Amino acid sequence: MKYGILIVDNRLKNREQTLVEAKRAKEQNIRLIVIAVGDRVQPDKLRQLCSSQRDYFYVENYSKLADLKIQLIQTICEGKDQTVRPTLSPSISFSASVSINVDPPPPNNAVVLIHRSIL
Length: 119
Fold this sequence. Notes:
The protein is an alpha/beta fold. Helices cover about 25% and strands about 30% of the residues.
């Protein structure tokens, strides 16, 4: 299974098309995880994009994203033969791209999409 992580900090501009694309991703066996950032998001609409309710996360601002790293790793690795050990020091960094470093790496690739008022 592949993973898509959608980080959203605004209202969806084209909700219907976004729902179509989310459905298409799920049909291609991509598990969609949504991270809502800030108070301008619409949680009820974003939850419709997730593969399940446990794949929805919320943070107050971008500086709080690092607080989610262990939860995201556990979400991605759940059901696998790997476990998240407390000695891991995964990191999430933000600039033009996002990197998630885990040792050992998650069993599948995670695709990270950042939404900044473009959908």
